[in-house]
Design goal:
The structure is a homodimer.
Chain A: H1 5-23, H2 28-32, H3 42-55, H4 57-67, H5 81-84, H6 90-110, H7 115-118, E1 121-124, E2 128-131, H8 132-156
Antiparallel strand pairs in A: 1-2
Helix pairs in contact in A: 1-6, 1-8, 3-4, 3-6, 4-8
Amino acid sequence: MNFRLEQTKQILQQTPSTLNSLLGNLSNEWVSANEGPNTWSPFDVVGHLIHGEETDWIPRARIILQHGEERAFDPFDRVAMFEKSRGKKLSDLLVEFEVLRATNLEELDRMNLTPELLAKHGKHPELGIVTLGQLLSTWAVHDLNHIAQIVRVMSKQYSDAVGPWKAYLSILNVR
Amino acid sequence: MNFRLEQTKQILQQTPSTLNSLLGNLSNEWVSANEGPNTWSPFDVVGHLIHGEETDWIPRARIILQHGEERAFDPFDRVAMFEKSRGKKLSDLLVEFEVLRATNLEELDRMNLTPELLAKHGKHPELGIVTLGQLLSTWAVHDLNHIAQIVRVMSKQYSDAVGPWKAYLSILNVR
């Protein structure tokens, strides 16, 4: 499938409500569980998504539009949420994410992106030259990647509880 | 985490609304895409979940309660949905799944499962002896497994669109 702005926005629009449905009524055992030392819980993932809304996707789109490949993106702090989310409740984080995402999608609309602008180059500090279209595609797949992570982390809490069925459940056999 | 009935029901309860949020507003390109020959689209997965509600989880729980390990479960047809879903719309399937799941969770409540009943043995046609608690744990993890599958299938449609970022997106590098 080639990148298309409308299709990409469909993915970006569903994530807040999907996370609300998935996590909003779970007991804390599910929400705070992780995969062991230095791994993330569903709570941590939502904090990471919030930090992305604040410092990654739209700020990088702005840099591409304003500076092209002449100014590299600021590096993204993948673990900033461990500090930022401290003491917060998941319900607060879910609302925070929902508001930020809606605001960012409004800004995306205001950018009035044409095929020419979507092909514009930017400079990633590690990956080198990328396009605005690739950035927006990555924003969407990054959401899906973290939904997959959340359900994997939750599943693994029941690795033993499923007994012999573990052999049939591929999600229990991936990292 | 040990199996607990209430926690397991929390997972089972969220799946219909999560699938509605995730898929309900997507264009058909996302919903009908798969990973190549003999793989499933998000549409196929929802049909598979419906067939599980009809023939797998609660019917097997009934068999355990009534017959214990003396009567093996009927084998589950993993691909029945290719025939059954034909000609239907995703929106119909999502409603169908929601109704079936709600009905099945009501029946689960009416079973008044005690720790003794949850430890009761059943006989899986391939896996051998399993417990009712393991069956219910598997029901929940099976939901999560298929949510992971749906977001993986969708992600892969953008494997090329993300450009160099593919290296950072683990979901694009698993089968």
